[in-house]
Here is the input.
Amino acid sequence: MDIEDLIYRILAGEATEEERDEVKKWLAENEEHRALYRDIERTWYKCEYAGYWQEETEATWMTLKTKHQSRQYKKWLWRGGSVAAAVLLLLGMSILLLDDKEEEKTIVAQVKQAPDSGTVLLLSTGEKIILEEKTDTIWVNGTDIQTKGRTVSRGQQAKAANSGELVYNELIVPIGGANRLYLPDGTMVYLNASSRLKFPIQFTGEKREVILEGEGYFEVAPDTHKPFVVHTPTVDVKVLGTCFNIMAYATDPRTEVTLVSGKVDVNTGVYREVLQPAQQFVLDNASQQHEVKEVDVSTYIGWKEGVLNFKAMPLEELCKRLGRWYNIGFQFTREDMKHLKFTGAVRKDYDIGYILTMLEAMTDVTFKQEGDQVIVNKK
Here is the structure.
């Protein structure tokens, strides 16, 4: 396929993972390729938003160098008075596909991106282990718990395990962190920032049960005789062997279960739904009302690869997710700003100040850091 066709497929959101990888390699070859990509990107967006691009302007997102230009661009992308059609795909695709950082950036908030402390492993014995900051994967092998080939726990829990008693450890991932955990049955759990998972040192009985608060992606080892159950404060998810994502933060207004493959049985105690692949169960935690809808699952599991995808996401929710990644809080001075909607993608390894600058340029919103908080104001 022609490289230009591939680029247009990417910009339209139609490219496969293999096609995206092919374009990434092509972009890495030289600056001429990257310049062509930017030209095609500019043309695509000019056509896509012809209804509200001014004819005399051809600036793209990556050429916005000043506040004056930023405000002009914001006007081009503004649709109506109450909701911003602030499309961040330019930001998202540039971050995902381009590594050159030659453009000027105004840093509005320098925020420490690493977690304040490492991931914490609380053993059933009461022992507290702080894992290495860069530790990514933890293995549970019987009563042994290992990381990077190093045994961090051995034998202390053997007595309880041998007695058949169901004893739980707990993994706590801090703000800005993410850890992969392999359970005794081979199930892989990837925990997002500000999440915690309680898991037994051995699975006994008729079910394999864990307790989640926060967000986790599960690849469950098949076992027809022992279903796997994830308990959250609002829903229980039961599977035999499948891949799915659960977002169940205690402070969030809703719980989401997104199925990638296989089947899951979602039970709230009042409602029960069996999901098929590419379906999502959404529960309003306050009203207990729910819906099941078709979704693009990549939008909801990209965080595993360090990518935050968002589609028509209210600014309040976007700020909350950024806060979990970058260890910072957001305070809104006006209620209406919380409902501005954005679509796009950003990488976790980008500076939070750069991301906020992009958001600021797209709307009538400004961001100002005060300590570990960012104040969101109207321009």
